[in-house]
Design goal:
The structure holds 2 protein chains of 2 kinds. By secondary structure, chain A is mainly beta. Chain A is 3% helix and 57% strand. Chain A contains 1 helix and 16 strands. Chain B is globular, with a radius of gyration of 25 Å. An 8-stranded antiparallel β-sheet of chain B has the order 13-12-9-10-11-14-21-19, sandwiched between helices. Chain B has 17 helices and 24 strands. Chain B is 36% helix and 24% strand. By secondary structure, chain B is an alpha+beta fold. The chains are: A mainly beta, B alpha+beta. The interface between A and B is large, with 52 and 51 residues.
């Protein structure tokens, strides 16, 4: 399985997991062994150094990974866009629009986008507060906002449509 | 002085300082009573005490600041003394008086002394009578904008406005020029009012980037006053200390002698009793100025305990029960070097905002020369109700280099998951050349902060985090949760560990 991982919005890793204790990171082999994985607690051996990590899911694309005394936020996208399909990617009735849905129940804190705004993949559309944390809901595509379905300071349910986007194909990423 | 043996102490505080006080009580064979708020039901200090009583909801005003409730618990359950710790009611003269009036010993100075030496304005008056140097300014609180303007003109800008009753940076404003004075004065007064219930503000010359040096003293009821050396606390953010050390690199033996003597003479002049700390500022020309006195045990007191081998809480209890000091100045032996790092649930990357949440995992370092005072554990919740301090990590070394290396090594191996914290930040500060060579001041942290934020720390961990994230992603659908033994390298759950063992064998 192939993943594209971004750590703390600055380090990019293409990770390829193989059916052995080898993984490829940015096309270079790395020896990895999961020694233990119970609930949110992982002990992993990477290139003969052992690490203890704790995992906390933020939403379906983001996880917090705690190592030592630090936290690293990982943005996960798999090659088959499987995760994407669970989050934000719409099951749209026609292929001309994308519906951005709430990844979790929460309170809309702020809306950064207005109708007819043009957005790029990864742009923050709105801020959803859940479990006392503010989560940025990002655009799954380049496009134009065609509808904003929620108001600031209102509660939303998981899966509720927040924003509709008319995707635009662009050559530059 | 009459002796009153203390057999049972109520601790009117929470968190690490409650744990720390209870520990000494236990060592002295004194039984302990904890009081706790709704938010602290599961806090370690509650279990550590022999008895513990719930006194109210989470907000401190309805629990830890509720004098009547605390005294009522002490009376009802037969505590003969109350230790206030630091913060909360520790410097509240009314509380000290109410405790005494209830026939209970207040472990600290008498109410009158808290009222005089604990108040900046009256403490300055006493300091003036014995010629202790002070930063140019006015002793009386500012009464009007007109008065403020004329005083500021006479001492010269920049000036500092400070709350007479407070600390911790609240009610404090630096004013660079007259046009900003009026707004700053109003702001400082209203902030002081809401923080301390006292809007009095006074003015002094603002010293640019001084060093913060304080002297620990002990005074018994027989007129004996001794000092236990200095602590330097110049590493501060938002006027709050995060790293303290002793001895200070800024003091020559001669200067140390002068500053500690000044502290002892102030304590004598103010008829001080029990443990206290006198805070000074040291300017670029090595001139020191009296700033204020803290009439209580301080957060950073373990630094002094590490160097002197004296348990300050034990001495506080002995003094409060009417015992004389069991040592004199010449019998105090200072040894080595000690450094304390305050580990806070706050984000140095984001303006030191306090962070809340559950601690998923906590595994602190230990070993020779390492002391950790802490009031939380794995599973504890850091709530927004109280100070977000997680722990005080104190290291000792035969010299400064030794203590520093030990501190850095401890911080690097500190495991703390679930709540954003300043552990890495503390170790980074200790590694900075200007900290290492001891030439820092109270402006140091703000100067180096941009550099800290621009750096990527522990880059190797990014690779590890990326790998875990990928496994986490692959595991999302295929793996059952709560599976005790999984080999995720092939994305499948395995029923036992033998498969893992086998793959290990073949590697």
């Amino acid at each position: 399985m192939k993943f594209s991982i971004v750590i703390d919005d600055k380090s990019n890793f293409d990770v390829e997991l193989e059916a052995s204790s080898e993984a490829k990171v940015n096309n270079k082999p790395v020896t990895v062994q999961i020694q233990d994985w119970v609930d949110d607690r992982v002990i992993i051996n990477v290139q003969s150094k052992h690490y203890l990590a704790h995992i906390r899911s933020v939403d379906e694309e983001h996880v917090e990974i705690w190592i030592g005394s630090s936290v690293y936020t990982a943005y996960i996208q798999d090659d088959r866009a499987k995760l994407l399909s669970q989050f934000a990617r719409s099951q749209s009735r026609d292929h001309s629009t994308l519906e951005v849905r709430a990844p979790m129940p929460g309170l809309v804190r702020a809306i950064h986008s207005r109708i007819s705004d043009s957005v790029r993949t990864g742009d923050s559309l709105l801020v959803l507060e859940a479990m006392k944390m503010e989560n940025e809901v990002k655009s799954p595509s380049n496009g134009i906002i065609t509808a904003v379905h929620v108001q600031p300071h209102t509660s939303v349910e998981k899966g509720q449509t927040l924003i509709t986007i008319q995707p635009v194909k662009q050559d530059n990423p | 002085m009459k002796k009153h043996p203390i057999k049972k102490v109520l601790i009117a505080n929470r968190g690490e300082i409650a744990v720390r006080i209870i520990r000494t009580c236990k060592e002295m064979g004194i039984s302990t009573v904890a009081v706790f708020s709704e938010a602290d039901r599961s806090s370690p200090f509650v279990r550590f005490a022999d008895e513990a009583y719930h006194i109210g909801p989470a907000p401190a005003l309805e629990s830890y600041l509720c004098k009547e409730k605390i005294i009522a618990v002490a009376k009802r359950f037969g505590a003969d003394a109350i230790h206030p710790g630091y913060g909360f009611l520790s410097e509240n003269p009314d509380f000290a008086k109410m405790v005494n009036d209830a026939g209970i010993i207040f472990i600290g100075p008498p109410s009158e002394v808290v009222r005089t030496l604990g108040n900046k304005t009256s403490a300055r008056e006493i300091a003036k009578t014995i010629n202790i140097p002070m930063v140019p300014g006015v002793i009386d609180p500012i009464k009007s904008t007109t008065e403020a303007k004329s005083v500021a003109k006479s001492i010269g800008y920049p000036i500092l406005l400070k709350a007479a009753a407070g600390g911790g940076g609240k009610g404090m404003r630096i004013v660079q020029s007259e046009e900003n004075l009026e707004g700053a004065l109003t702001g400082a007064q209203s902030e002081a009012m809401s923080a301390f219930g006292d809007s009095r503000v006074y003015m002094e010359k603002y010293l640019e980037n001084p060093r913060h040096i304080e002297v620990q003293i002990l005074a018994d009821g027989y007129g004996n006053v001794i000092h236990l050396g200095e602590r330097e606390c110049s590493i501060q953010r938002r006027h709050q200390k995060i790293i303290e050390e002793s001895p200070s690199t800024a003091l020559s033996d001669n200067l140390r002698e002068q500053i500690t003597s000044a502290a002892v003479s102030l304590a004598k002049a103010g008829k001080y009793l029990n443990a206290g700390t006198i805070e000074f500022l040291l300017d670029k020309d090595s001139k020191f100025y009296f700033m204020e006195m803290n009439t209580r045990l301080q957060v950073e007191h373990p630094v002094t305990e590490m160097r002197t081998g004296i348990d300050l809480v034990r001495e506080q209890i002995r003094i409060a029960s009417g015992e004389p000091l069991s040592f004199n100045q010449s019998s105090i032996k200072f040894r080595g070097h000690a450094i304390e790092c305050r580990i806070y649930a706050e984000d140095p990357e984001n303006q030191f905002f306090p962070s809340t949440g559950r601690i998923l995992h906590l595994s602190p370092p230990s070993g020779a020369g390492v002391r950790e005072d802490r009031g939380v554990e794995s599973g504890s919740e850091i709530t927004p109700h109280y100070d977000p301090m997680i722990s005080k990590l104190v290291t000792f070394g035969e010299d400064r280099k030794d203590a520093l290396q030990r501190a850095i090594s401890c911080l690097k191996s500190y495991e703390l998951a679930g709540v954003r914290n300043n552990v890495i930040f503390c170790s980074w500060i200790l590694s900075q050349p200007n900290f290492q060579n001891g030439t820092y001041d109270t402006g140091f942290l703000d100067r180096v902060l941009p550099e800290f934020r621009n750096q990527t720390h522990y880059h190797d961990n990014h690779l590890v985090a990326a790998l875990i994230a990928a496994y986490h992603g692959s595991d999302a659908e295929t793996l059952p949760r709560n599976d005790a033994s999984v080999d995720l390298t092939n994305g499948r759950s395995t029923p036992s560990r033998w498969t893992q063992k086998r793959t290990e064998h073949y590697r």
